Every structure is written in structure tokens, then in C-alpha cells.
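Task: encode each sequence below as C-alpha cells.

Item 1
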Amino acid sequence: MTDKPTVAVLGTGIMGAAMARNLARAGLGVRAWNRTRDKAEPLAADGIKVAGTPAEAVEGADVVLTMLYDGNTVLHVLREAAPALRPGTVWAQCTTAGTEMVAHLADLAREHGLVFYDAPVLGTRQPAEAGQLTVLAAGPREGREMVGPVFDAIGAKTVWTGEDAATGSASRLKLVANSWVLAATAAAGEVLALAKGLGVDPQGFFDLIDGGPLDMGYLRAKTALLLDGKLTPASFAVATAEKDARLIVAAGEGNGVRLDVAAAAAERFARAAAQGHAQEDMAAAYFASFDKQTGD
């Protein structure tokens, strides 16, 4: 068994492209596919083979890594790849797909004899580019010697949540973590919006909380993107944040938990997207506090 597996990366958006580059830097053979091929072509400069179809990308690969928009997209793409998948191939599913979808993905893996790992990642563009993601993983021990080098290349650490990927334990933890991230992002935007509405200099607020228990690096980072006008390229896009917020709300509802903050955040992200901010950083939810027609 090789110490340097060949990896097929399906999906080369903000996260997938960075992950593919780090896999190549670690000395692994990498093939990449993206629905819009032009977005994958720059990876060729990193020694990555850009494939024209999912089947071409996965043929002969030891590990398939999916980093696509949502669970339904993953199902569709893996079915496209199915003719070239061989039994025993490891599948590391890194998309934030939600808890219910994981069972369907595990069924697809069993159908094709794949070794399935539910492996969503925690982090955005910068940690992805630096290979400093946190991988939340669940899956069988017997395949970890193959998938381990992949997780080591894309992340700073791997947190194992169980041996049965079909239970969705890793995806459940990811949704819990994302519920905090999205709530904090929405709050950061609202505090700036309220300051604007009340004529308060935001710096006065930052001075007030400086160094105290209400201060935190994430608040500073997200508000800086807004104040400095650096919402593109996005670290985590508004449209994706809305998708994740709705997955969180659905997971809560399915388990008897009402999540008012997550539901409100989903609506804020939706309004910001409708105003034209869908592909900007999720900090752009700030604009949902204002009527676009007013110019604010």
C-alpha cells in the first residue's frame, strides 16, 4: 500500500482548489475536476492533472475527495464518476452536506464498494490555502492509513468522531461549530449597522471592549473586511453561508430544537444575496440591515 496515494479532487472552488494545491505540495499525485473547467485550469501550473469529467478524474485514484456546494451536488457528481470507481477506493467527503444527507452518501458508497469517510472541514480560504484546516472525520480504522496522508496535507489536525461514517457524527459536529461561526458573523455585521444608524464611530465600540471578555479576534477580522472594503475574494461566501444556516435550522428542527438565531441569520444571508452580495464574503450580511434602494 502506497504512502503517497493518488487523490482525485472533485470540486475546485475556494476550498477545493486550495486543498488540491496542498495535496500536490505534499507529494501526492492529484487529479482535479470542476464543473466549470476554467476554474480548475490554473491548477495545472501546480502539477495537477485537470480532468474533463468526474470519471476521468477518479479512474485509478486511491482516494476521492469531494468538496462541492452541497450534498445533492455530491450525489450527482459521484454518480457521474461511478463507471470509473473501483471497489476499495477511499472516499473522503468534505462538503458540508448536513446530517440527513450523510446517510444517502454512505448508501452510495456501499453501492460501489467504497470506503467512506464523513470528513467536513472547519476553516475558510486562508487556513485552506495554508493547509491549516481542521478535519472532522468519521470512518473505519482499516482505511485510515490511506486517508491519513490526505488529511495531514490539507489540515493542521484531524478530530475523529467515530468509526461509522453513516451516523453523521462528523457532520453533526460541523453544524454545531458552524452555528457559532454564522451567529458571530451576523452579530458582527449588526453591530456595525447599528453603529452606522445611530451615528456612533465603530472605533468607539472597539475601544470599549478592547482586551475584555467581549472582545475576540473573529469579530475584529470580520468587521475589518467591511470597514476596509475587502469582501472579495470571499473567505466564505454569503450564498454558502445561507446554505449552511438552513442546514443547521433543519438539523435542529429534526431533533426538536428551535434555532431562532440560525433562522434569522439564514434570512439575513438571503437578503444580502438578493442585494447582489452572494459571492462576497459572508461578512457582507451587514448590508441586509439596510434597504438597498436607499444606497445604505
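Item 2
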Amino acid sequence: MGKLALAAKITHVPSMYLSELDGPGKGQRQAAIDGHVEIGRRCRELGVDTIVVFDTHWLVNAGYHINCAPHFAGVYTSNELPHFISNMGYEYDGNPKLGELLAAAANRHGVATMAHPATTLPLEYGTLVPMRYMNGDRHFKVVSVSALCTVHYLSDSARLGWAFRRAIEDEYDGTVAVLASGSLSHRFAQNGTADEYRNKMFSPFLEHLDHEVIRMWQKAEWLDFCDMLPEYAAKGHGEGFMHDTAMLLGALGWRNYDRGVEVVTPFFPSSGTGQINAVFPVSPMPRQLDGVGMPSAPALAGGRL
């Protein structure tokens, strides 16, 4: 019935917003903004009606949650970095029907998930920043999924992504894009050194690690990457423990995924962290969960992961 038309791993660094404003950061993140605009353009070209964002700034301590209110509007200031994102207005339309389909599918496949179609929950900036550049005209409906998951297995997040794909293709009458909104390595600069690290990685180790991961993605080395994801998330200080990446790969077939990524915005450092915009071409995947090669939960535990 429905179609997953586009999948991507994207940055949401708040310095993108600063890049619009007069000041020392003006224009510094134009390449990242242009990458978001390009992904939005492709979504339009593909007939996407709803963008589902796996948001690593939405922290949850129990269950998986889907913000699928019919409408979102407000003025946002980041509680983490109020000097980066302050008083940013937003307005988007949601998709309650799709959110409820996604939650029901995840629950059927053993991942405890709740949809929130009637809620005052605001959107977090892992959703708001990309929507600012991809969806400023409210062309797309928006569904946001919690991906800063503190007591969750990465394997459950991968299973969640797989269930979402099944719900989209088997039950939804429309076309969807999914975005994993989070960084590569995510070790912020130590307090007091932020200006020094504004365009610099925290360490050479993390920079080399990120570049090796990008090479693996481009070469479609998914068996190896899926095996190393828990350790990469731990040693790379993964944003949201990299649950967004597990969700994305689950929606693409996990170990059975067979495509190399297309880098839209090349790797760049930001405040010590590694960032990218990359499109993961969508290909067919097994229709049965036992054909996806997904390990049991303890195999992807990685401590709290």
C-alpha cells in the first residue's frame, strides 16, 4: 500500500540556526543547511507526504514514544544550549493516523511503544532544526519518535524500525521518509573550551573512527557495522546511544541492507562532535522478522544500550 521513499542520517547541530544570524557563526553551517534543503527537495520529488524523525533529543526512560499530534506550533529555546537556539518559531502539521499505525505495528512485534495523538508534548530540536530547512512551508506532515533511549536495547530499536517499515508498506496509504537525526561520534568539547572546538573534533581517535564508519557505509559493509554498533555507540559517545541509527537500519533491513550511502553534506566537526548528512538508498527487505538477521536483545546490550 504505502512506500518508504527516502531514508537518511542527518545532522541537527544548533549552530545551523546561528549560521542564519549576524555574528561570528554566520554562514558557517551553510553546507549543512544546503544538505537539508536538498533532502527536502528529494522528498518532494518522491511524493513524500510525511517525514518521520528519530529524534535523539527526546529523552525517555520507559517505552518508546511517538509524538503524532495533529498540529505543532510554538517558540522554542533549547534548554541545553539556550545561547545557540533562542526564541525560534515553528509551525508544522502532524499525522496522528500514521503515528498510531507505527505504534501498533511495533507493539505487535514485541516493542512496547505508545503513540500520542492528543498531547501537549512539544517537539525537540532534533526534529525542529531539520524541519526548519526541509519543511519551512509545511509541505510535509511531521511525526517525531523518541530516540534518546536510556534503558533500551539497540536490538529493540532496530526491531522498532523494521516494524515501522512494515506498517508503512502494508497499512499506510501514502509515502514516507525516515530521518535518523543525530551525530556520528558525540563527545562535546569540555566546558570552557567550546569556542576552540567550534569547528574541531574532540580527539583524533574519534575523527578517525567516524571516517572509518563513513567508509563502511559507502562500501555497504553492513554485517560488520551492525556487529560493531554497540561498541561504536559506547566508545564514540553516541548521541542518544545511537538508537536513531539502529532504528534507521532496522527500517532498511538491518544485516540484509545492501546499499552504499550517498553523502550529501560531507563530514564536518562541530563543538567536538562528528556530523554528516547522508542518504541511505531504500531497497527491498525481508517481510518476516526472522529473515532480517536481527540478534537477541542481550547481544546488542552494550551496557545501558
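Check on item 2: The longest helix spans residues 154-171. Confidence is low (pLDDT under 50) at residues 298-305.
End of task.
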